[in-house]
Amino acid sequence: LANQLLNDYEEKLFLNPDSDELVALPKTEKEGELYQGVSIDQRTVWLAKPFVFALQPDSNHPLKSKSSQFSRAVCLYDNAGEHFLPGGSNANNYGTQHLSFSQALFFLFDPTQHPQVRSRCSGKTADPQMKDRAWTHRQDQVLFEAASRIRTQTGKAQNAKYEHPLIVVVTKYDAWCSLIGCPPLNSAHLMQATTTGGFQLDTERIQKVSDKIRSVLSDLTPEFISAAENFAENVTYIPVSALGAGPELSPQGGLAIRPSRIRPMWTEIPFLFGLHKAVPHLVSSLSSPSRQTQTGNGQVSEHDARVQPQSHRETGS
Length: 317
Description:
Shape: globular
Number of strands: 11
Strand content: 5-15%
Distance between the termini: 43 Å
Largest sheet: 3 strands, parallel
Strand order of the largest sheet: 5-6-9
Helix content: 25-40%
Order of helices and strands: HEEEHEEHHEHEEHHEEEH
């Protein structure tokens, strides 16, 4: 089961008794452990295994009495980027058709794979993924192909806008945060406690951060911004760092991380924001247009999560 693989990864990273030893996790492969080969029309078809989770209001949620109405089975799929290379689809490739039924899409954009970002961050990070000779990947082409397939599978015109949320998860924040001054990303600053013991999501602050990240990416990766916003009406850019620290080169030559160094940043925010967009009453948001709150009690100050572009030398795209 895909959930078991996820549990295995969690144990390696967060419950590892040898937390100072290097650990490597496999990347998502087109026909790897996260896929199941099935026979359709006498052909082997590789389908992504779903991560399935039960979601329901808890005892402190204002909709607890309507639990049966608002409970959900959440299915998440991790598709390899190779699935969306131009020309990679054919009549017998069903591995991406679930996207046409999705209520939210998460596109993981990796800035370390873009040469302009690597150039701008030169000398400001020790992450080996930021080296000049690191791998370059046309992520805008992957998104173009995904958009084309979704439109085809839903019977929409190729210029039709996607009506569900597209959440661009801008990964490896710790590697490129020098572009915006490296403000800390603290998830607690986005959660407002309610009088009933629950929490509300500060979607206004998330949108402000999204606007700043979009500004930076528009300068360095305009082709990707164009691909995202030509596809979807509602695009949000959310920075995250799954590890909070750069990987190291292992003796075997690959990249690995020491579990003791892991400090995730905002990793849950894209999912909570996606749930808010798909089921607004299940994950509610703050409604006040302005907040003057104090720090030290789990609340927010305007300084704590400020994200501002830094002045820098202009480069071509």
